[in-house]
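User: structure tokens for this one?
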Amino acid sequence: MKSTTIVVPCYNEARRFEPEPFVAAVLAQPALSFVFVDDGSSDGTFDILSRTAERAPNQLRVLRLDVNSGKAEAVRRGVLDAFESTAELIGYWDSDLATPLDSIEVFVHVLEQPSLELAVGSRVRLLGRRVQRKPFRHYTGRVFATLAALALRLSVYDTQCGAKIFRANAVFREIFSEPFETGWTFDVEVLARLARLARKNGRNPEDLVVEIPLQEWIDAPGSKLHLSHAPRIAWEMAKLFAITRRP
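Assistant:
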């Protein structure tokens, strides 16, 4: 497998973070490493992450943010840290492992195609696959994804799945170089920045991105996204339409 670094943002995950899958993954695959980003947690998350990293110091490391900055900034800082390594591929993954870690190898294999820049997990409910989502989150997610596709002018099915891997190249270094203008919806902004750069260079962004239907995705309990966040998400979506229409 190509050398791959995965960023895992963590905020107050002391009760549900499970270190064993990460340790097992790196012990089984020398080309794989993780950067855990403690996003200013107020519980024992940093201590748990530090103890986990000690078990495989060459492949597990912890980046600590002094204050809670949100998932978007935690991922961005982790990606910039990963760029300082020799990784050929960089990605980010949710700490709750709703997407199992063995999917990483599938993403890496797909990115063997030289024309592709980004692999995105897609939570599609198909026969023979174990994709479990709560009905409310599924249907609200479909509405959001439809609006996101319209904003991006891309035929993307699922922008918000927390499993993405991309090439560690100058394009993505530029994409992550500046803080995101959005928070909850920063995944869409990543795609928007990629699409803008592609179109600027005369390329079709749909030729650079592939969605991978996940074999398994489980709606893990303890999500930090709630109905009360709907107004903020609606505001961010309006902002995204403005971002994607800038000259």
